[in-house]
Design brief:
25% of the residues lie in helices and 46% in strands. The protein has a single domain, classed as Beta-lactamase Inhibitory Protein, Chain:B, domain 1. The protein has two helices and eight strands; from the N terminus they run αββαββββββ. It has helices spanning 3-26, 44-51, and strands spanning 30-33, 36-39, 56-69, 74-75, 81-82, 87-102, 108-115, 118-127. 7% of the residues are buried. The protein is α+β, with helices and mostly antiparallel strands and 130 residues long. The strands form three sheets. A four-stranded antiparallel sheet has the order 3-6-7-8, with no helix packed on it. A two-stranded antiparallel ribbon has the order 1-2.
């Protein structure tokens, strides 16, 4: 094989890789339920409406440090009055829901992660067992 042929083969391979790489990176940001698509950012009620009840649901709470810029005036926990533009930091409760959908032996098991009732991660496991 000549160096020109090798260079052409390498360029073609890299072009094909660049074409397919974005598709594989976003392929798991959606899931099909009842001929409709569920995607990242969807609310949990929509997912349950389209896909039905999950095969397993785990609920936990995470405590995170967050901040918020106030609009208007309000009192903080110590009784101080804070007005618009003030940044308040504190601990925030974030409800975490993990749903698992098993659509049968011919499809993958889907693991969905919700934070504050919004779909933030979607992953697949092995084939289902139903």
């Amino acid at each position: 094989m000549t160096s020109r042929a090798r260079a052409l083969l390498l360029a073609t391979s890299l072009s094909a890789l660049a074409f397919w790489a974005p598709a594989s990176a976003t392929a798991w940001s959606t899931m099909r339920c009842a001929n409709r698509m569920v995607e990242l950012g969807d609310p949990m009620y929509k997912v349950k409406q389209l896909c039905g009840a999950p095969d397993q649901e785990d609920v936990t709470v995470e405590y995170r440090i967050g901040s918020q810029v106030l609009r208007g005036c309000s009192k903080d926990q110590s009784g101080r009055i804070l007005c618009g533009g003030s940044e308040v930091r504190g601990v925030v409760e974030v409800p975490i829901h993990r749903l698992i959908y098993d659509f049968g032996r011919n499809r993958f098991v889907y693991h969905l992660l919700f934070e504050s009732s919004r779909l933030v991660a979607l992953d697949t496991g092995d084939y289902g067992v139903k």
